[in-house]
Design goal:
binds flavin mononucleotide, alpha/beta, 12 helices, 2 domains, 12 strands
């Protein structure tokens, strides 16, 4: 089978594959650049970075590889506006916006002639995005890793979103191999966004022991937690997720105010940084639902090459 073409504004990647942004510092410049270089779209996760760090990341990616590089930014973070402006100043190719919805960002990105791609989970928000000028949407189902905007399956929402809008629709959540891509394209997707498959790659910035957890985890190890952001989150069960789910008192002793609104049931920033750095006892290990399909750590370019090769054989 031939892969469909994905167009996002004036951007046309060789393959319709986006590496999902993964905070905090799981998808940094080396991963985004490797994906872009292999013909996909690579996303640097901006949430949790400061402005200077994000600028350096974008410059490093540009200097080291060719291809399409974007940022992913969560609306929920306090530095949302500064980080978006920093990325636009650095001439980023596109912005993907998750975990909440800003109307202002449509104006900023349009002034900079930079495609904006909101993450949505309902046809209604997809329609609003299109009317505000989005170049495409990512539609994310409950199968996805990280924060969830819905508990409905991608299989149910994707056709509804596709019907509702005429801009490209990129499917996310539970897409690991070529067969998953085929199903997404048959349900109407114009592209796919994949998270956890790329978190378990050589260029991912996850600590080596975290990558080991990714390739050993089974589907029954996957849990939902209540995030301080006010959304559900999908993660791999460990001591820390059990503490969250048994309502241990994890109220942070200090707070740097990284979120606009925080429920303070635990510190999401510390928990994600701990996981990324390999302190798994105190870390929150975000993961997609189909983690058990991932059994090896491969270079990102090899992941893309294999996806394309397997897809073309279908
Ligand atoms: C470790 C991890 C961190 C994530 N962080 C973010 C994030 O910062 N912003 C965001 O919009 N989505 C985030 N996501 C969601 C991914 O970008 C992607 O949409 C999702 O993982 C797709 O599902 P999959 O993992 O089954 O492929 C994260 C996912 C994972 C696994």
């Amino acid at each position: 089978m031939k892969l469909p073409e994905l167009r996002i504004g004036n951007l046309k990647p060789k393959y319709p594959i986006i590496q999902g942004g993964m905070a905090v510092r799981i998808s940094t410049a080396p991963l985004a650049a490797a994906v872009a270089n292999a013909g996909g779209i690579g996303l640097i996760a901006a949430s949790g970075m400061d402005v200077e760090e994000l600028k350096q990341e974008i410059r490093w990616a540009r200097e080291n590889f060719r291809g399409i590089i974007g940022i992913n930014i969560m609306f929920a973070v306090s530095k949302f506006t500064q980080l978006v402006y920093a990325a636009l100043e650095e001439g980023i190719d596109l912005i993907v916006q998750g975990a909440g919805f800003s109307r202002d960002i449509f104006k900023w990105s349009s002034e900079a002639h930079t495609p904006l791609v909101p993450i949505v989970s309902t046809p209604k928000l997809a329609r609003v995005s299109e009317s505000l000028g989005a170049s495409a949407v990512v539609v994310e189902g409950k199968e996805a890793g990280g924060h969830l905007g819905t508990l409905e399956s991608i299989r149910k929402i994707l056709p509804l979103v596709k019907q509702a809008i005429s801009i490209p629709v990129i499917a996310a959540g539970g897409i690991i191999d070529a067969l998953d891509m085929k199903e997404a394209f048959q349900l109407g997707a114009d592209g796919v966004q994949m998270g956890i498959r790329f978190a378990a790659s050589v260029e991912s910035n996850a600590a080596p022991n975290l990558k080991e957890v990714y390739i050993k985890a089974k589907q029954e190890d996957i849990v939902l937690i209540d995030s301080p952001v006010g959304l559900r989150g999908r993660a791999i069960r460990n001591e820390f997720s059990e503490k969250i789910n048994t309502e241990h008192d994890l109220t942070p002793e200090s707070c740097v105010g990284c979120l606009k609104k925080c429920k303070q049931n635990f510190c999401i920033m510390d928990a994600l940084v701990n996981a990324q750095q390999g302190n798994l006892k105190n870390g929150l290990i975000f993961s997609g639902e189909y983690i058990d399909k991932i059994t090896d750590i491969l270079p990102a370019g090899e992941i893309i090459r294999k996806l394309v090769e397997d897809y073309e054989k279908l």
